[in-house]
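Re: the 145-residue chain
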Amino acid sequence: MSQQFPTSASAIYDALSADTAFLDLLGEYVFKGNSAPLTALSVVSPGQDLPSLRNVSGVECVIQDVGTTTLQNYLTDAPDMVTSFSVFCILWEPANGADLQAVTDYLVRRFVGAASIQTVATPDGLGSLVQSQVVIKSNMPIYPA
C-alpha cells in the first residue's frame, strides 16, 4: 500500500469515512424527509450549512473544503506549497467532553503532524456545547487505520 497524504478535503474525508473505528466515535445527522440517521461526518465550505438538517447528536466532524496555504522553503530543493485543512469536531448532546476528546485524539494520531489547536465553548442558543479545531497539513502522511 502506498503512502497517502491529505492533499484535499476529499482525501481526508475518504480516509475517515472508510475507518470504522473512527466512525464509531461520531454522532448522527437526521435530515428532514429521511428517517434513517447518517454518520455526522461532512465536508463543507466555510459558513455553508448542511441542507435540510433536522438534528445532530453526539460528536460531529466537519471538514472545511478550503485550507490555508503556505510556502515551505528548503535550502537545496524547490519550495513546497503546504495546505492546512481545518477539521471542526463539534459536541452535541448527549455526548460529553470525553467523547470530543476521543475524536480529537484519534484525528491527531491518524494524521501525522496534526494538532488540536483550539477548543472553545459555543454561544448559547446554537445547540452545540463546545467545538475543537484540528489542523491537518497536506505534506504529512496519513497513518493507516
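The mean pLDDT is 92.
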